[in-house]
Amino acid sequence: MSDPATPPRSLAEALRARDDASLAVLLRSRPDLITPVPTDLTQLATRAGTRASVVRALERLDRFVLQTAEALAVAGDPAAYDELLGLMAGDEGDPAVAVALPHALATLREQALVWGGDDLLRLVRTARELLAPSPQHPSPTGLGPTVQEATAGMSPGRIQELVAAAGLASTHDAVSAVASLTALFTDRTRMAELLAGAPEESREVLDRLVWGPPYGQVTADPAARLRWLLDRGLLLPTAPGTVVLPREVALHLRAGRAHRTTEPLPPSVQAAATHRPQVVDATAAGQAYTALSTVEELLKDWDEGGPTVLRAGGLSVRDLKRTAVALDVPEPVAAFWVELAYAAGLLAPDGEADERYAATPAYDEWLEQPAAERWARLAEAWLTATRTSGVVGGRDAKERTLSALGPGLDRSAAPEVRHRVLTLLAGLPEGASPSAESVLARLRWERPLRGPQRDDDLRSRLAGWTLTEAEMLGVTGRGALSAHGRALLGAHLTKGTDEALSGDQLPAHHHTPGAPLDSAGPGDKLPVHHHRPATEPAPLTPTEQATASATAARLLAPLLPEPLDQLLLQADLTAVAPGPLRRPLADTLGVLADVESKGGATVYRFTPASVRRALDAGRAASDLHAFLAEHSRTPVPQPLTYLIDDVARRHGHLRVGAASAYVRCDDDAMLNEILADKRAAGLRLRRLAPTVLAAQADPAALLEGLRAMGFAPAAESAEGDVLITRADAHRTPPRTAPAPVPDGPPTPDATLLAAAIRAIRAGDLASTTPRKTDPTAEANGGALPRTSSAETLATMQAAVLTGEALWIGYVNAEGAASQRVIAPVRVEGGFVTAYDHTADEVRTYPLHRITGVAELADD
After folding, report:
1. What stretches pass through the bilayer (predicted)?
2. pTM metric for this prediction
């Protein structure tokens, strides 16, 4: 094992020096490193340096930690802490940076992106390659290559000319000449004297390149202002017609800063308005009730079978428009409600030959729950779903239109963004609604690599959708987080506002890459905000989320209106429900009447078609009269009584059954009337008997056609019985809600972390334990020697007598090879029983699976 006082020579040695708690933090923050579990710490270090893993780690850094990594990418390798501090704070110094930098550096070490002591800081090579400048990928810091890198292909004579033009003594070789020029550019006093003699036009060129991009174009015969810079090495050629500002020169002009603006603290979330908490909760509760009503209305409309499933999956554009019209909402809002019901497991494809969307059995169970619990189920499904309705109507990677309920709507970052946005709202005072711009600015600071530069700023779009959807769902009211919305996030949230510390402005200069240096460049002012960081609780586990949802439901329940069992009947064949109705009353009234308007009170209208619908569902006229008398606060109006009796008298007088289809009626005069009606021509009816007509249409079409002509036919079975139809008859088989698509491997729990660390430590012990030198091992490149069966058996038996530990190579039944340190206890029957230091337990191994054995070196 390495001496703890000796600086680590590699990332593997740095990881080896960590304790288990530190390794657990690393594996929890970068779960891809244990998928699968590495065999030892060397393999863990190798995996931590792979491009895919480093990119994932960089994407999860906040702006200041990322700026720290970028500064290390342009610093020396290794770099001292003071050099890093100078790059971050500049020559003038910045107290806020000095305070925040140790924490940022600790984060990079924790993430295994930086290793080594403060005097030898090393950025992982892959991270340096991703963040360091190159002509193809300019550095985020806007710095170009060093003098040494830029002059790598330059002739020694040309380098000597640059040294002489800069006023330096000539040297005997190009290496010392480049070192002399670098020393000049890094000396603040001497550089100030050199630039003091620069023409004003040349200084303007430097000012346009100083903050990057550092590359510019020149002609074959550069202007005098460019020639002055080229002659002294302040601009160096990189390709025909292209020059670059060396890193050392840019850092002098920047006063030592790697970034134009450092942001050590996050921007605060500003309150746009403040409302009384009671008003917020009441508004949110009203929205929650509307959300429940909307989902019920949607699925009730699809009770008899919803829209057809497209061949590729999802709703057609036409069906989405029809759904939006039925719900009286815009199409994007309709897509949200459809996706929410799907995420909650309330609707799904029915799986039949002519596949359609329909309610699931879970919908019926959901309807029986109290209103607050129904809302909590919707809110929890929304908070954890990765399916994102906001992308409906967009295009996928193959330029195919994304449809509601279709594939391709999962966005793995959605749950994290929703949780983070609501957490930021919870940090405001109660009743305060945030400024959307400040929320987006905060999110961009927290994940800058997932900001405008990547995925067309998907994270910001998700945040905007979250604010809108939370209001529609009733998690927020008037833009502020409600009490039940706060409970939905968990009781561990702390309230408070971010405290602003200071603000200033620095000039910003922009230069288009490759633009002619003779053109003018604009300048503007960019604000810098410093704020105290807020506590950021992690998302809840499924068990914690269920508990939080139950708490939210308890807080919401008193705010929702109590269901009523009475309604107001009016003489114009309408009924007014002054509030939500109890389930049996609402279900029956929904069949007997049509909804005419919605709002605080719902208006229903009775029509011949709606009454016939109730009769078709098996209700008799007497049942309808009794139902209305029982639930009406006012006497049943006479017009409504007449309407029910009139429709009931004619209902079922005509009977329609299946031959291909037929009409049966005891009144042959009525059949004559049907045959004489021109509207019946499309049904192609002919008389088979005085009381029977045959039709060349299916029974459903025949029923609709006769009803359109003003008759009230009833369907009958093959036995002649009237068929009773129910609106809620069609349900899908039991379905599970769509599972969220995780953003990479899930965060391991404590049990998995402990087991993984134990396995990694054990494997590392086996691979690093010193062994006695052996000629066969030396010939094998230092690998485990391959011993014969007789040698293996003899060594094992000797170790049993002496009690010594051995190092073995072992191949299990699946063919996986591993190295282990064991202390043999017994050898018999072709097996060795030993205490396995790698697994920390007694195990038995077949001798024929041991590939080789070696004694451990004496400590």
Report:
1. none
2. 0.76
